[in-house]
Specification:
The chain is α+β, with helices and mostly antiparallel strands. The protein has a single domain (about 10-185), classed as Multidrug-efflux Transporter 1 Regulator Bmrr, Chain A, CATH 3.20.80. Helices cover about 20% and strands about 40% of the residues. The chain contains three helices and nine strands; from the N terminus they run αββαββββαβββ. The chain has helices spanning about 10-15, 50-60, 135-150, and strands spanning about 30-35, 35-45, 75-85, 90-105, 115-120, 120-130, 155, 160-165, 175-185. The chain is globular.
Length: about 190
């Protein structure tokens, strides 16, 4: 599997860092997506305890133990189960689960330390992030602060957004690309 490195997207979003985007963000493609099964490494994450990069490294070292992989050149990142925790001193911290994994055709015996997740079928707005990860918070800011409020769609909280890393992803290179799938439903 191609080397995949990932930094904490939500860390940047939660603390409000807004890096400059290298290019304009193209409108999304609206797609009906079939259910996706993902096997990988899952952990509870916070802004101050971010293990996502370490999780990708562990996955890269052990992905050959995952059975039924549908594409060995694809990695998927999923964040879910967000909870805002109020800390002493009136500071808030977000806790959430993050899974880094690979798509599989069916879930078989799980390698030690791994779990699985089912991404539900549904309608997704698919955005392509172009450039280094430094501009990723600007892409997410565009999606949630600009596109969704103006689109004919609402965010679908019954599903999860996820990132799809394939051969276009080039670590932290300015020519890198990967897709962000955002679950949507038509506005009522």
């Amino acid at each position: 599997m191609k080397r995949i490195l990932f930094t904490g997207i939500l860390f940047f979003m939660m603390i409000g860092l807004h890096a400059e985007a290298n290019t304009e963000i193209a409108p999304p493609v609206i797609k009906q997506v079939d259910e996706i099964l993902v096997v990988g490494i899952n952990s509870l994450i916070s802004e101050n305890y971010n293990l996502i990069g370490f999780m990708w490294e562990r996955l890269l070292q052990s992905h050959e133990n995952i059975g039924n992989i549908t594409d060995p050149n694809v990695g998927i990142g999923i964040s879910y189960g967000f909870e805002l925790i109020e800390n002493a001193g009136n500071t808030n911290e977000s806790l959430y689960y993050h899974l880094v994994g690979m798509p599989v055709s069916e879930v078989g015996a799980l390698p030690q330390g791994m779990t699985w997740y089912r991404i539900p079928a549904g309608i997704y707005a698919v955005f392509t992030h172009k450039g280094s990860l430094a501009g990723l918070s600007a892409t997410y800011n565009h999606i949630f602060s600009e596109w969704i409020p103006q689109a004919g769609y609402d965010y679908d909280p019954e599903k999860v957004d996820f990132e799809w890393y394939d051969s276009r992803f080039q670590d932290n290179d300015e020519n890198s690309e990967f897709d962000i799938y955002v679950p949507v439903k038509e506005k009522l």
